[in-house]
Write a structure and sequence with these properties.
mainly alpha
Length: about 60
């Protein structure tokens, strides 16, 4: 019986954590929005650097 109770307790804990995370996703706070903006800026900068590297490589190859 103890194993079944442990399993039920773990299932309840996982369900509560899942609901808590789902509730957080509805209304991102200012820190979450700032983090998303930083992520987008870093991604854009990475793409620009990659494009610049490709241009330099093409210029070095004479294309």
């Amino acid at each position: 019986m103890s194993g079944m109770m442990r399993l039920l307790a773990m299932a309840a804990l996982v369900a509560m954590m899942g609901l808590g995370l789902a509730a957080c996703q509805d209304d991102p706070g200012p820190a979450e929005e700032a983090g998303q903006n930083i992520d987008e800026a870093m991604e854009g900068a990475g793409e620009s650097i990659e494009e610049m590297g490709e241009s330099v490589q093409e210029a070095a190859e004479g294309n």
